[in-house]
């Protein structure tokens, strides 16, 4: 049992070695092969998305519109020094503030990370320093999970549109009107989008 039984939780995130479990304000990392607890940190606010990680950082979207990035190496150092979860804030690399709740899990790609907010916007910020690369606005909130393939981000908004957006420039490659809301989010498989 990780966290309290009544804590809000999100789907598990994994890489080759770790499984990340978010329960309430606590983020747990479990060794995938042994099931041992690798570390536990305390988030600075209430999350609104599942955590996502790349080789160097873990990203979490929050109810207050923030996205936090925490350094995985620093988390490991703090754990070795037995300073977690009390000193979790020491591992925070940056915070980016949008206007409203973060609605989709961040997507790290190359040197930047993309995420969306209920303020009808898609944001792309640099992984190092959180400098805004581009912001794209839609006519309605982006609520379905996003996916990416071959340098393009695919997202659906509540205005019944599905967008293909270049992850490097933020330009719309194409836009498709479905006529109905997309709830589970698009899935990219080979050359097709479902």
Structural class by sheet pairing and helices: mainly beta
Compressed to H and E, one letter per element, the order equals EEEEEEEHEEEEEEEEEEE
User: Could you give the order of strands across the largest sheet?
Assistant: 1-2-3-4
Unreliable runs: none
Helicity level:
under 10%
What is the typical, i.e. mean, pLDDT? 93
Number of strands: 18
Outline: globular
Measured distance between first and last alpha carbons: 36 Å
Oligomeric status: single chain
How much of the sequence lies in strands comes to: 35-45%
In short:
With 194 residues, the protein is mainly beta.
SSE blueprint:
Layout (H helix, E strand, L loop, with lengths): L12 E2 L3 E6 L2 E6 L5 E6 L9 E2 L3 E5 L4 E6 H9 L11 E6 L9 E3 L2 E6 L3 E6 L5 E6 L9 E3 L2 E5 L4 E6 L5 E6 L10 E2 L2 E2 L1
Antiparallel strand pairs: 1-2, 2-3, 3-4, 5-6, 6-7, 7-8, 9-10, 10-11, 11-12, 13-14, 14-15, 15-16, 17-18
């Amino acid at each position: 049992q990780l966290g309290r039984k009544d804590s809000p939780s999100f789907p598990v995130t994994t890489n080759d070695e770790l499984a990340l479990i978010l329960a309430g304000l606590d983020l747990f990392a479990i060794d995938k092969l042994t099931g041992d607890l690798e570390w536990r940190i305390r988030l600075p606010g209430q999350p609104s998305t599942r955590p996502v990680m790349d080789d160097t950082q873990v990203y979490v979207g929050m109810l207050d519109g923030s996205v936090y990035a925490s350094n995985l190496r620093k988390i490991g150092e703090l754990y070795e020094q037995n300073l977690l979860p009390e000193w979790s804030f020491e591992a925070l690399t940056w915070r980016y503030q949008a206007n409203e709740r973060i609605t989709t899990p961040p997507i790290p790609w190359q040197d930047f990370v993309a995420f969306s907010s209920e303020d009808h916007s898609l944001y792309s910020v640099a992984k190092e320093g959180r400098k805004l690369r581009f912001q794209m606005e839609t006519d309605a909130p982006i609520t379905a999970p996003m996916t990416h393939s071959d340098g393009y981000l695919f997202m659906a908004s509540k205005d019944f549109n599905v967008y293909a957006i270049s992850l490097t420039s933020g330009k719309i490659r194409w836009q498709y009107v479905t006529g109905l809301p997309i709830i589970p989010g698009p899935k990219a498989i080979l050359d097709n989008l479902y």
